[in-house]
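Blinded run. Sample ID left blank on purpose so nobody reads anything into the name before looking at the predicted structure. Input follows.
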Amino acid sequence: MASEELRGKTALVTGAASGIGKSIADLFAENGAEVFEIDISFDKSRNRNESNPARSKYYADLTSSRDVKGAVEELEKIFGRLDVLVNCAGIEMSGNVTDLPEESYDKVMDTNVKSVFLVCKYAIPIILKSSKKGSVINISSDLGIQPIPNTDAYAASKGAIISLTKALSKNWAKQGLRVNCIAPGPIETPLLHRFQNDQVLDFVKSTMIPAGRLGTPEEVANVALFIASDKSSFVNGAVLTVNGGLL
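Blinded prediction complete.
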């Protein structure tokens, strides 16, 4: 049974259409939060015609400063406050630096890192203005800590998110804003299956994860709920791995 961990709080979740982002948005709503969800796959025509404001879905290109600024302004107009920000939007492109096209590298870095910069740039002032116990949660990856071959751009982007998180955590701690990072390992999501074939995943499960299985988006969402809640009030600048003890 869901609790009321986030009752009275408003959360912004990017990458909320599927996978980890959707699970986080769902769990936050179940625990009492009003949730403003952003994803590039949402229907743009619904941006200002939302039938359920408590679960507002908003189209935005998070690499566009204008789109991000507009989305945050819409959130403030609807809810008047922001308490929790989850940066979960991301993409992956395989390859090493010798064969990955420059434009692919740029797209990965823009989508995975620049988006976090832009959303934080426009959302954090709203949090500071409206919440004395704000929480920013950036979703990185275990590959940002221990990369595997041919993940050069993705690993670099996720490592950058970890460093950005640690830098941000120092800026507004005295004002009650905590900034933390979750680094999931192999999680059962559409992105993982686009990234690795079944043969590789079977090998990972049998030899690299002690539990012998992939994680679930819900298991990552449970960690995000803890970081978003006041129960984690002294957790700041942390990188929490959710990887089943990945070897």
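Unblinding after everyone has recorded impressions. The longest helix spans residues 102-130.
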